[in-house]
Amino acid sequence: MKLKLKGVQETLLIPLWSKAMEVEQPNPIVTDHKAVEIVKNLDYNFPNLDKEWATQLSVVIRTELLDKAVEKFMAEHKNGAVINLGCGLDTRYSRLDNKNYSWFDLDLPSTIELRRNFFDETNSYHMIDKSVFDYGWFNQIPGDVPLLIIAEGLLMYFSEEEVSELFKALAEKFSGAEMLIETIPYSLVKQSQNSNLIEKQYNIKANFSWGINNGNEVEKLNPNIKYIEDWHYFDYHRDRWKIIRWLSLIPYFKNRFGNRIVHFKFSMGTA
Questions:
Q1: In the chain, where are the structural domains located?
Q2: Where does the record locate the signal sequence feature (predicted)?
């Protein structure tokens, strides 16, 4: 299948490839056969990514962290909903399907059109073909159940002003909801903007725009955000990080180069 993706949209292929390649590891961190199936059906030069072992490892660690966090939320909150923003070709619903939950995967129309080649909607699984900033999608999400919002590999491509505006809208509409986001350090934002980092690594025209150095910095973006916890990728599967496992013991290095999953809640009230 030929692909017609450009810019930031094309980055959705990196996590897909990363999870597909993980299946070949002796002790895979995640086993995603759906990702393998999709990769086999796409006409794309994936071998260009083979040298990016650190990116591949980061993706599967974030996948494991998010899977566990979603499973924990589902266990603690019955009959709820999950909305996955900028879902790309993510396969989490296939792995964690819980019939007591409504699941919504949201992305741009062209991406959702691509997804429909590999996923079918059901009574509990839905796809929404809108920009995350087209707040019309809010009305498709049930507002009277526990809600978990996911944004991985997404928010770093937008400005702090855009991220802050999104959080403001979410806080006003979904008070009490919890959110899991992937964040990158500000140093990688600067490196991306100064040296076209993503284009050099993956031949994809995209740039990072937003980052934070500590998880609790999300509270600065909106008064109704309550930071809960965060998980730094370098702290997991240290045997796979090669020399980085030792460099990450230096706080300066860890904070400048490692990604995190940040978990927070939108407190009750109006931002």
A1: 65-266
A2: none
Domain 65-266 top-level CATH class: alpha beta
In this structure, the number of other CB atoms found within 10 A of the CB of residue 251 comes to: 8
| Confidence at residue 73, expressed as pLDDT on a 0 to 100 scale | 96
* pLDDT given at position 2: 59
Nearest CA to 262 out of 184, 191, 147, 186 is that of 184
DSSP 257: H
> For 218-263, how does the pLDDT look when each residue is reduced to its tens digit (9 = 90+)?
999 999 999 999 999 999 999 999 999 999 999 989 988 889 999 9
Q: Which amino acid is at 179?
A: M
- Extended beta strands in 49-139, E state: 81-85, 102-107, 125-129
Tell whether pTM > 0.70. Answer: yes
Query: Angle CA(155)–CA(114)–CA(66) in degrees, nearest 5?
Result: 40
Locate 220 and state its tokens.
């600065």
